[in-house]
Design brief:
Largest sheet: 5 strands, parallel
Structural class: alpha/beta
Number of domains: 1
CATH class: Alpha Beta
CATH superfamily: P-loop containing nucleotide triphosphate hydrolases
Shape: globular
Number of strands: 8
Number of helices: 9
Radius of gyration: 16 Å
């Protein structure tokens, strides 16, 4: 099986690039960020503090997350409910950052991620795929962009969806998440030593996809 790991900060375009490239190559796309967001949403709905490791760990056995393809598009189901829209809200992003620092949550999702990779040609994106989840992936990419560019992309995405949001608030949230993700004690966000760095700040989606597909062709 060919496994491709894409890591990078929030808003770098990992999901968009990975999803499109996987479709072009006929691979399975695994959005690990969506899994953590689903856990975060579940914790928020229960009125719990997403930084309370003990409280979060105690409810994990009541959480069931599934990835399903509906009309060719990956959807995330939380205990049978399609939460694909809810997990993209700003509060879900910060909740995901908080719960992803909890060892019990990482262990909870680790086996699911490894199982998919062992049985499929896949592109998996996240924060620690190349460093922790798939350290033996045939191709590792660290996809990044400036905080301002990432905030603008997220702002445009939410505006199109009709979600009211302030650009400066998004920018601060992204900077805070960058700090949280890169300084956490468990599996911090960092570029794997053998990963290819791709800065998409001045690149179109097509250009990034073409770059990634070229890298894939080189490993075959």
């Amino acid at each position: 099986m060919i496994n491709i790991a894409i890591d990078g900060p929030a808003g770098a375009g990992k999901s968009t690039i990975a999803r499109r490239t996987a479709a072009n190559l006929g691979y399975i796309y695994v959005d690990t960020g969506a899994l953590y967001r689903a856990v975060g949403v579940s914790v928020l709905r229960r009125g719990l503090d997403t930084t309370d490791a003990k409280a979060v760990a105690q409810v994990l056995n009541e959480i069931k997350i599934e990835l399903k393809f509906v009309d060719g598009v990956q959807h995330v189901f939380l205990n049978g409910e399609d939460v694909s829209t809810d997990i993209r809200l700003p509060e879900a992003s910060m909740a995901a950052s908080n719960v992803s620092a909890i060892p019990a949550v990482r262990a909870f999702l680790f086996d699911l991620q490894k199982s998919i990779a062992a049985n499929s040609n896949c592109i998996m994106d996240g924060r620690d795929i190349g460093t922790v989840v798939l350290p033996d992936a045939q191709l590792k990419v660290f996809l990044t962009a400036s905080a301002e560019v990432r905030a603008k992309r997220r702002y445009d995405e939410l505006v199109v969806k009709g979600t009211p949001v302030e650009f400066n608030e998004l920018l601060e949230e992204i900077k805070l998440r960058d700090h949280n993700d890169s300084t956490r004690a468990i599996a911090p966000l960092k570029k794997a030593d053998d990963a290819v760095l791709v800065d998409s700040s001045d690149m179109t989606i097509d250009e990034v996809c073409e770059t990634l597909e070229k890298l894939v062709r080189e490993i075959k």
